[in-house]
Amino acid sequence: MSNELEAFLEYITVTRALSSRSVEAYGSDLSSIETSLKKPLIELDSPSVLRILSSYENKRTLNRKLSSVNAFFDFCYKRQFSDETTKFRLSKIPKLLPKFLSFNEIQNSLALIDRSSWIGLRDYALILFLYASGTRISECLELSRSDIEESWLKIRHAKGEKERIVPLAGVAIEAIDAYLGEFKYDIDFIWANYQGKKLSRISAFKITQKYLGVSPHVLRHSYATALISGGADLRVVQELLGHASLMTTQIYTHVQKHELQETVQACHPMTREAL
Asked: With a threshold of 0.90, does the pTM exceed it?
């Protein structure tokens, strides 16, 4: 690893305080290029870098690596390790509609859960809760019993440390109460595994995958999509989801447009027959 690359990794670790995963990803992306060409990255010209990265057919992977390279060269320029900065244009990626489930699909899957044990009651309550609250799974798993008060949910462990309060459907609260009523361990947090310890992200993923065939995050998308399709104001949905930017929430308007288009194509006679 070159001295410049070590300095860059130290900068993003100490000064920018990026997570260990982010630092590891930058290091892996950049050191692999140096290893492939057997030269310090700062000495490489643009054609050499692009020749290495052109082997990645997945555009998202390619863009991640290009972003790493751009960040490195920008750092070197600002620290005067290099006389000129290099910036690669990222590949255009078509916007994908977020995957979501309909209310009927979720209802049908919930009906298949055996609620004769507290594990079954937990799985049922977890899926209902995720769909009723729109929480991120990381927020969900950190919740304690005191975070639910009457019909309100306080999300204290939000992304970016932003606390928010959202209303919670009564059916979800009832499901949680039924699960906790059969729960044999005395703990403060809500979601637990069979050993009475806090439920892990992997376990939560296995639960939603088992009954719905999707990740927990799809239920967050389903929550937002249901609100937008029902006529909810975009800024209200932004607040409920805890999005810092309205731009992030706007993807759900594309879902609504897509549904409207499908409805017209399926129902309007002019889409099937010429006049």
From this structure: no
